[in-house]
Amino acid sequence: MKNWLRKNPQVRTIRVAASDLNGQARGKRIPSRYADKAVEDGTRFPMSVLNLDIWGEDIDNSPLVFDSGDKDGVLKPTERGFMPMPWLDAPTALLPIWMFHEDGRPYEGDPRHALRAVLERYTARGLTPVCAVELEFFLIDDSGRKLQVPPSPRSGKRRVAGEILSLRALDQFDTFFTDLYDACEEMDIPADTAISEAGLGQFEINLMHCDDALRAADDAWLFKMLVKGMARKHGFAASFMAKPYEDYSGSGLHVHFSVLDDEGNNVFDDGGPEGTDMLRHAVAGCLSAMPGSALIFAPHANSFDRMVPGSHAPTGISWAYENRTSAIRIPSGSPAARRIEHRVAGGDVNPYLMLAAVLGAAINGIEDAVEPPKPITGNAYAAELPQIPGDWKTAIDSFEASPEIARIFAPEMIRNLVLTKRQELHYMQELSPSEQVTIYLDTV
């Protein structure tokens, strides 16, 4: 890590940052001359900082604040090390960190540690998840009172409709996307295909599959930070909020995953289109945990505006082969690449918690060797299916009470997230939908 800074003497300052429960980067700015201390000794800030609400405020009655004396955690660098922050004008480096107790134990309220704990369950069985994430986002002109699509830097015109898979829509913002891909190369984020999506100014970029789920979550977290920062550098906003426009589809964050055994074989591949027993067990685990995990997949007030029938976001708890109306889709293609696509999460999620919930639910099902219901065919919106919680309060209550969630997340994580979301629910009820959009535009 130290060598990176010595090879980049132009860097004047560094940022050390960890993810809070909402996926916000919390940390410090440090002159580069003191970077060695941050690497060797770590840095310190209150444990409560990873448990702030969406406004960045302490949680009322949280045991992490006054009851504990607001004590510090020790934050150490992750395996990622230093990387550039290309959206800033001055040469700056980012050092991702995660939180530990004073005695070296992982802090269970840290989202990255929540995913690490799930992955240890796979390792204990000689298994390794392979993940790929698809992220949808909007480019937005928020300079006026009404949100709208930024004018094209090429033509000066604004899009007036969603243009699905339109090359013209991509080319209108070619300078932005070129700079974004160059920045991904600098930060070693494996950005692959970009497409124009169905919403106004909406795009999707896929990240390449990775056999290190912690790194896949890092990539998604860093990518969201990068896209928002790079958009501001180009004079507009980018947002991963679930539903900025009432009349257009919202943004999802879909994850594809398979599982390898200790010899590198895909345990979902049976040589045919249906997949193995283990694939079905993983599907069953995901379906069983879906009511309790809804708060992870739809963590904000605005999230539930996306999850309505006919909006390209699943509302029923179901699975299917090659069917994008279902919550769980088994894509077609080569049996060697047989995988599960989990389609519930919105773009506004915390990637660490989302992958922990998805992979944790799947390993629940694999451990229990349970069978799912029959896969559906046709339009899932028209079928009589058990429903994903459709409002924030129900999602919070379901998360707190879910036995499946209790197997995935530590009690401290469950408590902290419930306290956070109940506080946000209380204050968001006082705001209009447009005021909520203003809050979420830059934060998620």
Could you explain the architecture of this structure?
The chain has 444 residues and is of the alpha+beta class. The strands form 2 sheets. Strands 7, 8, 9, 10, 11, 12, 13 and 14 form an 8-stranded mixed beta sheet that branches. It has helices at residues 2-7, 35-41, 111-124, 167-172, 174-187, 213-233, 277-297, 303-306, 351-368, 392-401, 403-408, 411-428, 433-443; strands spanning 13-19, 25-31, 43-46, 72-77, 83-84, 92-100, 128-140, 191-196, 202-207, 237-239, 253-260, 319-321, 328-330, 340-342. It is built from 13 helices and 14 strands. The chain is 35% helix and 18% strand. The two termini are 29 Å apart.
What is this structure, in a nutshell?
This protein has 444 residues and is α+β, with helices and mostly antiparallel strands. It has 13 helices and 14 strands.
Give the arrangement of secondary structure elements:
Blueprint: H1 2-7, E1 13-19, E2 25-31, H2 35-41, E3 43-46, E4 72-77, E5 83-84, E6 92-100, H3 111-124, E7 128-140, H4 167-172, H5 174-187, E8 191-196, E9 202-207, H6 213-233, E10 237-239, E11 253-260, H7 277-297, H8 303-306, E12 319-321, E13 328-330, E14 340-342, H9 351-368, H10 392-401, H11 403-408, H12 411-428, H13 433-443
Parallel strand pairs: 1-6, 12-13
Antiparallel strand pairs: 1-2, 3-4, 4-6, 5-6, 7-9, 7-10, 7-11, 8-9, 11-14, 13-14
Helix pairs in contact: 3-9, 5-6, 7-9, 7-10, 10-12
Keywords: ATP-binding, Ligase, Nitrogen fixation, Nucleotide-binding
Function: Catalyzes the ATP-dependent biosynthesis of glutamine from glutamate and ammonia.
Protein name: Glutamine synthetase family protein
